[in-house]
From TrEMBL:
Molecular function per GO: metal ion binding
Family: Belongs to the GTP cyclohydrolase I type 2/NIF3 family.
Provenance organism: Proteiniborus ethanoligenes
Binding of a divalent metal cation, residues: 65-66, 104, 330, 334
Protein name according to UniProt: GTP cyclohydrolase 1 type 2 homolog
Superkingdom per UniProt: Bacteria
Keywords: Metal-binding
Record field: transmembrane: none
InterPro entries per record: DUF34/NIF3 (IPR002678), DUF34/NIF3_bac (IPR017221), DUF34/NIF3_sf (IPR036069), N-reg_PII/ATP_PRibTrfase_C (IPR015867)
Record's GO cellular component terms: cytoplasm
Keyword Metal-binding appears in the UniProt entry: yes
Length: 368
């Protein structure tokens, strides 16, 4: 497979439209989209150890969560650590691609994976960053082709309402048209008014899927000139964003829940802020550094917040808001996503490429 084929698969689960372009630098970091890929290394971070592993194991492509380049670089010197990594990656034709804030905000992204791993129910977005725009597509089809055109639309994603798919509304009526000179009508003759029994098919389509639905619809439609309408809707589409909120299957003390988090994420250690005997039920979580969303946690009604990289004064503010905190670490709250991506790529590539998880922890400190 080519690098661009792998990237297309990643974009299916972490769309590039979700990248927070104000500060993030997700996407292709190094290499060519046309690179032939047989072996992929999945890693949370790209470090000298990651690059050495890639070189030693003939890796063609590295997929990371954290971007290799967060900010612009002014020089590349092989005498410096970052420069040497760049030189080694380029010289060995290794493609580097990162999915960061788009994977954070995705429907089944970092925080969603974390929420499910902690067995939360009734999961919703903590801090909304993007709302899907919706359209209604209406098309008029001769009765003979109503099923094939409807299937062509819904098979490309038209008609999703919540967890229901293939939702359409259909009305039978009479269409009129007069073919003019030079036309090649499917029904009728030139310069004669035709009356045809037609089906009006309506379906909701997302902004992202609109082009595919229209292309499929037009290919399946028998008419030379297809009559269809597109309406922009005020209906709210899917919400995407940072973090998740949910409820525990069974309420627990803060201490017992903290122990569950530590065991589930296989953390070396965690920090707990708050009365460990208090009862916790509604949980907010955010993989990585999520303290910026503390106000969202407060307004969500969550009593406990699980994230990483919590600072001293931020913890004091949380306690003032009566929110208990569990700092499970940046690495542990995000690394689960890399296993999810590996399983997804294994399934989608069907053995065409080999995927390898970088097992070494990229935590830049130890607890003693």
């Amino acid at each position: 497979m080519l690098a661009k084929d792998i990237i297309k698969l990643i974009n299916n689960i972490a769309p590039s439209k979700l990248i927070d372009k104000k500060w993030d630098n997700s996407g292709l970091q190094i290499g060519s989209l046309e690179k032939k890929v047989k072996k992929i290394l999945l890693a949370l971070d790209i470090s000298p150890i990651t690059v050495k592993y890639a070189l030693d194991n003939q890796i063609d492509m590295i997929l990371s969560h954290h971007p290799f380049f967060f900010t612009p670089i002014k020089s590349i010197s092989s005498d410096e650590i970052k420069g040497k990594m760049i030189v080694d990656l380029v010289n060995n034709d290794i493609v580097v691609y990162s999915a960061h804030t788009n994977l954070d905000s995705a429907e089944n992204g970092v925080s969603e994976i974390l929420a499910k791993k902690l067995k939360l129910r009734d999961i919703s977005v903590l801090s909304n960053s993007f709302t899907e725009k919706l359209y209604k597509v209406v098309v008029y089809v001769p009765i003979s082709h109503k099923d094939s055109v409807r299937d062509a639309m819904t098979n490309q994603g038209a008609g999703f309402i919540g967890n229901y798919s293939h939702c359409t509304f259909n009305i039978t009526g009479t269409g009129t048209f007069m073919p003019r000179e030079g036309t090649n009508p499917y029904i009728g003759e030139a310069n004669r008014l035709e009356f045809v029994q037609e089906e009006r098919i309506e379906a909701i389509v997302s902004d992202e899927g609109l082009t595919k639905v229209l292309d499929s619809m037009l290919k399946a439609h028998p008419y030379e000139e297809v009559a269809y309408d597109i309406y922009e809707l005020y209906n709210k589409g899917k919400d995407y964003g940072y973090g998740r909120v949910g409820v525990l299957e069974k309420e627990s003390t803060l201490l017992d829940f903290a122990k569950q988090v530590k065991e589930t994420l296989n953390c070396d250690s965690i920090k707990v802020y708050g009365d460990t005997s208090r009862i916790t039920k509604r949980i907010a979580i955010c993989g990585g550094s999520g303290i910026d969303f503390l106000n969202d946690v407060h307004f969500s009604g969550a009593d406990t917040y699980v994230t990483g990289d919590i600072k001293y004064h931020d913890a004091q503010i949380a306690l003032e808001k009566n929110i208990a905190l569990i700092d499970a670490g940046h690495f542990y709250t995000e690394n689960l996503a890399m296993s999810y991506i590996k399983n997804y790529l294994d399934e989608m590539t069907k053995g065409k490429v080999s995927t390898i998880s970088f097992e070494e922890k990229s935590i830049p400190f130890i607890t003693v």
